Fold these 2 entries.
Entry 1:
Amino acid sequence: MKRLNIGVICYPTVGGSGVVATELGKKMAARGHSVHFITSERPFRLTQLSDNVQFHRVEIEGYSVFQYPPYDIALANRIAQVIQSEALDVLHVHYAVPHAIAATLGRHMADSSIPIVTTLHGTDVTILGEQVSLKDTVRYGIEQSDRTTAVSEALRRDTYRLIAPDAPIDVIYNFIDHEAYYVDDEERDSVRREFGFDEKELVFIHVSNFREVKRTDYVLNSFAHILKEKKAHLLLVGDGPEMDEREKQVRHLGIEPYVHFTGKRTDVRSLLNASDVMLHLSDKEAFGLVILEAFACGVPVIGTNVGGIPEVIEHDRNGRIVPLDDEQAVVRAALSLVESPERYASFQREAIRTAQTTFHEDRMVDAYERVYEDVLLR
Ligand code: GMT
């Protein structure tokens, strides 16, 4: 395929959509394309720039008249500049709002017909698509794009149900970097030593941004029920708006010695390696990238029957699916998963296989490359 100049627009801070955008950009660069990230900060996973991986900062200048800094307009302005200065062939925007709109405006400002590919990631549809103030804008962004992709079948269905765009949507699943996530027994031992866990003790893990949709209240209530049956520990990794509430809940449940708040950590792989089972009990989740990260480290996942989660977790193979708000179902799923070492080992093997085959990065990068090729042919 011809070498392309690809403009990538995403949220640069911690979050699955920015991670996917950055990893995809890096993989495209490894295939010989030139990738230009147009973002307000350098994406946190973009640790190295090179001749074919560049970062174009969006400068947002304030002015006393503005009640809010005009990020969307500044982004459109920067997109228009980079389309011209770098002779971009295609724009790939991650997260519909405001990125698809800013790309449409930037293209118009540059007097260009550059194709726009928009990838929907989740709450850009399932939350913003329900807001009267934004719903029509999300639809407009999708309809102005030359191609739209969604990270799961569930998100594709939700997009038609909630927003009803007059446009086709392709599903391209997420993937993870296998050089960053893998099984490591030494890491398991060292993290277990750090937290004072015995080799045989059962360790659960939850990793998220502690927003309401992640239902960390349900994670804690379920874990408290597990503790009534079996001694265990819970690593809570990440930080976010619900953290204070969760600390109060832990005190209220009287389970302080068994719950370990780690805050944001850069060594998530080590924490996953030290864990036996992940709990991912969201009430909205288009995909759940951390589930794949857990799988790659050989950790089976208990997840809710919500959004794209059942597309990633194969019930009774690499994890278990439970109904939302059924704490006893989580207890049963967790304890029966670990009671037989043979069964647990089979779940671990399946988890690793899922991350390495069904969701292998090469499949997804090929699919995105085909999308670029298609929109350029038109
Ligand atoms: O939509 C969000 O909540 C933010 C977004 C993000 O930037 O992390 O998360 C979504 O995109 C991820 C990457 O595609 C998916 O793995 C998450 O499931 C999805 N979050 C939700 O749907 C809640």
Entry 2:
Amino acid sequence: MRKVRVVVIGSGPAGLTAALYTARAQLSTVVITGMQLGGQIATTHDVDNFPGFPDGVQGPELADKMQKQAERFGAEMVYDLVTEVDFTQGSPFTVKTQNETFLADSVIVTIGASPRRLWIPGEAEFTGRGVSWCATCDGFFFRGKDIVVIGGGDSALQEAIFLTKFGKTVTIIHRRDTLRASMALQTRAFANEKISFIYDTVVEEIKGADNLVNSIVLKNVKTGAVSEFKTDGVFIFIGYDPNSSVFGGQIDTDAAGYVMVNDRMQTNVEGVFAGGEIHDDVFRQAITAAGEGCAAALMSINWLGEREGLGLLQTLDETPELAITG
Ligand code: NAP
């Protein structure tokens, strides 16, 4: 068992920002990275809307810079998955990973959300063989091929536009006749001659031969008509679900599983804070996640300081409207 001051669960923009702040406040900080250091942003290509990068930045590069910045102040990345936590006894909290157990005075939960699955026949079977949730990772394998993108939100359109760099055609299949994506992305997608749309349609099955996708079965939800559509690749962008199951009900969530926090990023467990997409199902931006990670870290630092009479975070102590009371 290893004792640390702060364990950050998750390594997306929220987690890496939180770690930067706690490490810089001289608190020993371990970041349990999960499967993908950088989280969702590391699987995103062009990030145009993160301030400070006037020409945009690639997602993996942004994640890399955030990691290095947190490490500069001493944060330690642990490339592992959290398997279990024990928050029932209060601080110090137990956080178990596949290989290690940590005892942390404070925990910051930034474990994010995972891409949704369709749960249709063929989806699991052809994952990595034509079915993908990451255009940045897999787009290259579909050079000159016919690709479908499922979904009608910002992710679907943004990734479809990116996939036109590789694919011969990109067909967006959406279950309604109105897109959820922003007007800016709709305008760009409509103007792209490689992109076409199939509306009011769901995918019922993914089929293939020789271990590769070769078609999908479509159903028009208005007419009920079922048809087969030839394609080489299926990219699924139908939203995200919060990764809160690992907490086993020990921190309060809403009905959809998003961790609930007060306006100081504190969960129902004193000393456990949360930020980013594990909590935020509204803004879901890298910059808002980073902001929430910062706020959660400041509150963690302040909570530890108050508890130990150390006044670690002078700025908060000196700012009455931000001081925690009660
Ligand atoms: P989203 O906004 O929740 O959209 C999910 C899309 O998938 C919707 O069109 C939805 O259809 C469809 N869908 C959901 N479940 C489905 C199912 N079982 N079968 C078929 N279709 C299904 O998710 P997102 O596009 O991943 O975006 C998530 C958040 O990130 C949003 O807040 C978005 O604004 C943000 N984001 C922003 C950017 C950007 O700023 N450039 C880029 C990516 C994401 P309905 O429309 O019928 O519900």
